């Protein structure tokens, strides 16, 4: 049976990790994640996910870096204010895990990605009587595939930023009441 859930932005997040100066990882997150999940545990082919991330909600713990990453050299937030994901296939990947394939759109470029998802959890009732589930997902992309190509050469011969970006999602979903 299909059940509709809305992503709870106050209890959900999207994080990323990228190699910096070829020596360490820098992490950042987006504070605004919203969307809808239609979940059918008995027939995963009926399950769908649509999510949107507000690029303006970027946080890397450095205001100057945040401004640069939101600029036209990276996310061009004024022209492309959101990152979107729309699933086209959901399948079991073992006990308590799903493999979700879909289109990830960044800078107007859509590429297929596969999310490894842990969950969803069992439903739990919150203090206000709403039913909630949770799930976590991860994938890795090449930022250059989406047109995110800004970089700087280092005196040591390397580059400032790696091309691989690890993406992690932690979602809490609220069951929607039937119409």
Chain-wise SSE layout:
Elements: E1 3-7, E2 13-20, E3 24-30, E4 33-39, E5 48-54, E6 58-59, H1 63-70, E7 82-92, E8 97-106, E9 109-118, E10 124-125, E11 131-142, E12 161-175
Antiparallel strand pairs: 1-4, 1-12, 2-3, 2-12, 3-6, 4-5, 5-7, 7-8, 8-9, 9-11, 10-11, 11-12
Task: Provide a descriptive summary of the structure in words.
The protein is mainly β. It has one domain (3-175): Lipocalin, CATH 2.40.128.110. 4% of the residues lie in helices and 54% in strands. The protein contains 1 helix and 12 strands; from the N terminus they run E-E-E-E-E-E-H-E-E-E-E-E-E. It has an 8-stranded antiparallel beta barrel with strand order 1-4-5-7-8-9-11-12. The longest helix is centred in the middle third of the chain and has 8 residues, at 63-70. The radius of gyration is 17 Å and the shape is elongated. The two termini are 15 Å apart. The mean pLDDT is 94. This is YceI family protein. Residues 4-174 form the Lipid/polyisoprenoid-binding YceI-like domain.
Strand order of the largest sheet: 1-4-5-7-8-9-11-12
* Second-tier CATH architecture: Beta Barrel
Superfamily at the CATH H level? Lipid/polyisoprenoid-binding, YceI-like
Please report the total strand number as a whole number. 12
- Characterize the biggest β-sheet: 8 strands, antiparallel, barrel
**N-to-C span:** 15 Å
Backbone CA Rg: 17 Å
Integer average pLDDT? 94
Number of helices: 1
Show unreliable segments.
Answer: none
Q: How helical, in percent, are the residues?
A: under 10%
Oligomer designation: single chain
Output the structural class. mainly beta
Overall form: elongated
Highest CATH level, the class: Mainly Beta
Pfam families: YceI
InterPro entries: Lipid/polyisoprenoid-bd_YceI, TTHA0802/YceI-like_sf
Domain Lipid/polyisoprenoid-binding YceI-like: 4-174
Protein name: YceI family protein
């Amino acid at each position: 049976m299909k059940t509709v859930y809305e992503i709870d932005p106050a209890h959900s997040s999207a994080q990323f990790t990228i190699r910096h100066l070829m020596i360490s990882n820098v992490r950042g997150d987006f504070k605004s994640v919203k969307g809808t999940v239609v979940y059918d545990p008995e027939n995963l082919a009926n399950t769908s996910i649509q999510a949107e991330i507000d690029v303006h909600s970027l946080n890397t713990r450095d205001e100057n870096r945040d401004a640069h990453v939101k600029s036209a050299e990276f996310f061009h937030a004024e022209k492309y204010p959101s990152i979107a994901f729309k699933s086209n296939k959901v399948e079991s990947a073992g006990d308590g895990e799903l493999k979700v394939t879909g289109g990830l759109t960044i800078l107007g470029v859509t590429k297929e990605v596969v999310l490894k998802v842990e969950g969803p959890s069992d439903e739990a009732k919150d203090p206000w009587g709403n039913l909630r589930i949770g799930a976590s997902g991860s994938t890795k992309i090449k930022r250059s595939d989406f047109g995110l190509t800004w970089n700087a050469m280092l005196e040591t011969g390397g580059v400032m930023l790696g091309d691989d970006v690890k993406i992690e999602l932690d979602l809490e979903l609220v069951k929607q009441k039937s119409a």
